[in-house]
Amino acid sequence: MTVVKMIPDGTDIAIYGEPDNINYFVTTDLAAATEDSVENRQAEVKAHTRRRFVGDSSPSNVDKHDRDYLFDPGRRNGSAVPGQIFILDDGTERRQFHFTGTVMDLHAYLVGEAAMDLSLISPSARYEIAAAADDQAAKVR
């Protein structure tokens, strides 16, 4: 399993976890934020001088040039997962995720998207969330 960054539409939060796990609890499936957003970009490097060693009395000049780099908005550094931990529990399944943003925004998102009655366990409290009133909430998984 791979931890990926998922950003629900219209929210300021990012959820980190396995997409299949979070999609079990919500009516609208989330996808990884990096699927189509990884791209190669170019940056311009200014002309500058470079010393070959400390105390070099005749540094060389480097001309202005372009460099290519990979831009990936969902990239993580190493195995660290950013944000705070939260747990979703429906009595049958219990899954842990990470999120960045506020608990209030996370709670508001889950109130509108909950596919079933569930518990949101945040770092500060436990919230009971009823299934969303949508017709989509009745979908069977």
Commentary on this structure:
- With 141 residues, this protein is mainly β.
- The chain folds into 2 domains: 4-36 and 75-138, no CATH class; 39-71, no CATH class.
- The protein contains 2 helices and 10 strands.
- It has helices at residues 19-25, 103-113, and strands spanning 4-6, 14-17, 39-45, 48-50, 60-62, 65-71, 84-89, 94-100, 118-121, 126-129.
- Strands 1-2-8-7-9-10 form a 6-stranded antiparallel sheet, with helices on one face.
- β9 and β10 form a beta hairpin.
- Mean pLDDT is 86; it is low at 135-141.
Class by SSE composition? mainly beta
The DSSP helix count reads 2
Give the C-alpha Rg.
22 Å
SSE pattern, N- to C-terminal: EEHEEEEEEHEE
- Please give the domain count: 2
Shape: elongated
The overall average pLDDT, rounded, is 86
Major sheet: order of its strands? 1-2-8-7-9-10
Helix content: 10-25%
The biggest sheet amounts to: 6 strands, antiparallel
Give the tally of β-strands.
10
Contiguous uncertain segments of 5+ residues:
135-141
Strand content: 25-35%
Distance between the termini: 20 Å
